[in-house]
Amino acid sequence: MIGLLRLLVAAVLAAVLSQFPAFSDQYVQRLGGQIDALSRVAEEFDASATRAGLTRTEALADLSGSAFRDAHQQDMRHAFRRLDRARSDLQMLRLAGPLERMLLPHRLRDTETLRATWGDFSPALPLTRAGLVAAALGFLIGWLVMTLGGRLVRRDERLGWR
User: Fold this and answer.
1) pTM (predicted TM-score)
2) Rounded to whole angstroms, how far apart are CA atoms 135 and 140?
3) 31 near 86, Cβ under 8 Å?
4) Cα(112)–Cα(147) distance, rounded to whole angstroms?
5) pLDDT tens digits for the chain (162 residues)?
6) Alpha-carbon Rg of the chain, whole angstroms?
7) Residue 107, Cβ density class (10 Å: 0-12 exposed, 13-18 middle, ≥19 buried)
């Protein structure tokens, strides 16, 4: 029974991890699109500030004094922070290959992009080398986790810790 459960968990983890390379490719493409859009917003804001004789920081400080202006200031600060974080993440994700990205899940942190990617993602057979290697890693991890878990349960039973 434990052997069947071990095989089942390993197979499920293999199937799940086999999808990560394709999913991360789609995420990287979408993140690039988000950066393009946010860059246009930042460039337009900076151009407006320059025409008014202000720096970005001065223009942001000038956006205060009413509920609307305060909210707009917060929105622009959020957009600038998101743009900086997305640029940094995209640089790291582009340098990494599909399998290396498995070690960078913290770089898939743009929730809007992640949600949109997940919403459009359709699992498929992993016909790329990266997908097959990810599936093999998933199977191995699942097998090892279940083997170690089974050993711990049997040890606890032997020692009467149950």
Assistant:
1) 0.77
2) 9
3) yes
4) 37
5) 677 878 888 888 888 888 899 999 999 999 999 999 999 999 999 999 999 999 999 999 999 999 999 999 999 999 999 999 999 999 999 999 888 999 999 999 999 999 999 999 988 776 778 888 888 888 889 888 888 887 877 777 777 765
6) 24
7) buried
